[in-house]
Amino acid sequence: MFDKTTYTTRREKLKTLLQDGIVLLPGNVDVPMNYKSNTYRFRQDSNFLYFFGLDQQGLAAIIDLDDGSETIFGDDASLDDIIWMGPQPSLKSRAEAVGVAHAESLSQLSDRVADAHAKGRKIHFLPPYRAENMLLLEELLDIKPAEQKGKASVELIKAIVQLRSVKEPAEIIEIEKAMDVAWLMHNTAMKMARPGVYEHEIAGVVEGIALSGNGMLSFPLILSVHGETLHNHSHDNKLEGGQLLLMDGGAETAMHYATDHTRTMPVSGRFSPRQKDIYEIVFKAQVEAINAIRPGVTFKSIHMLAAEHLAGGLKELGLMKGDVKSAVEQGAHALFMPHGLGHMMGLDVHDMEDLGEDYVGYDDEVKRSEQFGTAFLRLGRKLQQGFVLTVEPGIYFIPALFEKWQQEKKFADFINYDKVKEYIGFGGIRIEDDILVTKEGYRVLGKPIPKTVADVEATMRAK
Ligand code: GLY
Q1: Which of 151, 267, 328, 333 could form a disulfide with 243 if both were Cys (CB 3.0 to 4.6 A apart)?
Q2: Is the per-residue pLDDT at 386 higher than 80?
Q3: How many CA atoms lie within 13 A of 448 on its CB side?
Q4: Could you tell which of 186, 230, 231 is best to mutate to test the pocket of ligand 1, judged by most ligand atoms within 8 Å of the CB?
Q5: Helix, strand, coil tally for the chain in percent (to 5)
Q6: How far apart, in whole angstroms, are the C-alpha atoms of residue 229 and residue 361?
Q7: How many contiguous H segments (helices) and E segments (strands) does the chain have?
Q8: Cα first-last separation, the chain
């Protein structure tokens, strides 16, 4: 937990951004895997963590915007709880630790909400993403789960996005703590990758490193010789010489700040000339995109810049043709990179995505594109000092997408389908780092994870 003033200051700032009514913030609860007492690892709600810092299940909070009071609701441990889980701090002491004066039992929550409701006060709540909290909101507010997202408080969403988008110095320090774990995860994967090893052998060790860093993975590990599948969570393949292995993985600190890196490595330890050609294109696009980061520039323009580098490189190899700028404007490059360049990162790996991607990544000035590929860009708006984001271009040869576009002769002026066909089975390459937007430009966070062809190969050799 940060010190008490971090949380009191954040809540005071939130109050200044909202008009009136109450803010209702439920934390998360334990979720059963296969029976009630056998639960998934607990992950607290990030908004609750941001404003209240308490990382235990079964809590909720109300901020009263009219009288300024703050209350945490929860229950003290029963004797049974203490017998099974050991002594637990009282709710009052937990509330005091984060500067909250009032602590009440969970059973009081519905009375407080009902009272506000009866008085016609505004009840600000966020779009819920877990079934347990949807049921709670239904019980408290009498709003069906399917309608809750639409009735969530846009005022509250916008206020939280405004606060959480700009990371405090203490948050940057926390994110950088997880970077050492991320470095070890990726270096270990490079050292373990060789023909005959199963993906799950590497995945298990990598996840273990995240756990031994006193945190957890920041999202289910993507580690696959089928890197062309963007979020491939299966780890069943045996690695073979000549394949590429893509690992997209991140760690969370104990306080739940995330990292997110991708590296792609040749299973044999050396990139083939063809793999190297494609790798160098992605590498250049990533470096140039990072170099363009500074406050005031839209991330959408950096996405387009990266796309132009990719298309330019693919044209040099004969896979694309025609005018590069027109190809990118029209979306032809999306055959090779059908995703966005990156996203915000912080307490969530896709920071604040539960609040709605468009609120986080777009605004009145920059609207989301409807074009295939660019439409998946999660962050488009102008960058500000203090944003933390990922830069993750890639080139993928996706058989199903290739077949569809080829049949439709889509962008035939820009894509050399005969040449691209030769690459089906290649897999995919993505390279990703986490970047802090600074006053002057940017800082790549963390100890550098091997990234050049030479460094990746050298790390793999040093097994
Ligand atoms: N690195 C995984 C993701 O961005 O979804």
Answers
A1: 267
A2: yes
A3: 7
A4: 231
A5: 45, 15, 40
A6: 24
A7: 17, 17
A8: 37
pLDDT reading at 177 higher than 90:
yes
DSSP letter string, 56-91: -SS-EEEEETTT--EEEE--PPPHHHHHHH-----H
Question: Quick check: 105 pLDDT over 90?
Answer: yes
Residue-averaged pLDDT of the chain: 97
Q: How buried is 293 (Cβ within 10 angstroms: 0-12 exposed, 13-18 middle, 19+ buried)?
A: buried
* Cα dihedral 149, 151, 152, 155 in deg (nearest 10): 140
Q: What pLDDT is recorded for position 150?
A: 97
Residues near 222 by Cβ (< 8 Å), separated by ≥ 6?
231, 232, 233, 246, 247, 248, 249, 262
How far is ligand 1, taken at its centre, from the CA of residue 249, in Å?
A: 8
Determine if residue 166 is left, alpha or beta; phi over 0 gives left, psi from -120 to 50 gives alpha, anything else beta. beta
Contact predicate 337/374, CB 8 Å: no
For 437, the 3-state DSSP assignment is strand
Closest approach atom of ligand 1 to CA 343: 4
C-alpha–C-alpha distance, residues 90 and 93, integer Å: 5
Task: List C-alpha distances in Å: 137 to 17, 27, 146, 358.
Answer: 23, 12, 11, 23
Question: At residue 232, does pLDDT exceed 90?
Answer: no
Pocket test for ligand 1, best of 224, 260, 286 (most atoms within 8 A of CB): 260
pTM for the whole structure: 0.96
Q: Hey, what are 351's tokens?
A: 């920071």
Ligand 1 test: best mutation among 349, 388, 389, 430, most atoms within 8 Å of CB? 349
In order of 98, 104, 153, 206, 250, the CA distances from 200 in angstroms are 41, 46, 42, 10, 16
Q: Is the CB of 260 under 6 A from ligand 1?
A: yes
